[in-house]
Amino acid sequence: MQAPEPESDLYAVLGVQPSATAEKITSAFRARVRELRPDTRVDADTAARFGEVRTAYETLRDPVLRAAYDQRLEHPPPAPDRGAAPTPRARPARRYAGDVRRDPPLWAGPVRWIPGR
Fold it and tell me: Quick one: CA torsion of 14, 16, 20, 21, rounded to 10 degrees?
């Protein structure tokens, strides 16, 4: 999934408030899809608008991506200074909290076949 552009307001694309619930976001997405009707309208403008609506919905329906988007809206990155040294890229946020534990390797000992058992 691509990261949305910071210039576009995903809430405005769907026509909902930032405090909207998941149900309202889904309802607004379905209403926008009905308006655009990608199966009957095949012009480039409609396809581009449908792509924006779909990207907004995919970002806002996922609680983790929505929280990251909201945080970006509250604290936009500073404008780059042309004379400053480039800052290192931040590591992406982990999707799942806690330590990811791997299953131990599967051990299978020697198998003895006993007839009649």
Answer: -40
